[in-house]
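Hey, I was hoping to borrow your eyes for a little while. No rush at all, and the record is pasted right below.
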Amino acid sequence: MESLLPMGGQEAAAAVLQPSKTWYIDFDLNCIRGMCDGRRAMEQAVRLALSVPRYAHVIYSFDYGHELDGLFGAPLEVAQADLPRRVGEALRQDDRIEAVQGFRFTRGEETLHAYFDVTTKEGILESEAEIKV
């Protein structure tokens, strides 16, 4: 009888890259429209992680989401200095994300808008986050 468990050896030492196939969420229509994989799945993962406040919803683990709300009302210099760290912590929970870098900022009347690059196993994605200051 064959074992269902891996037996070891070189085959066991090689990591298998799992697919990133997931539900495709159409944010414009606010509905699920099938499945997606690869780059589109990574774009969605980044957007979702930056849309969910950490600790706010019991459906998500405490490792998921962002802590950008803690910068609400902070002085502009403090928010601009701390935002890259908070975005990086939120996104690097996903092992498909390798780096978050290249932050650029624009200031609105009541907001700080950040643009940055997310290096993933699917390539470099451009993303953004906005906080009220």
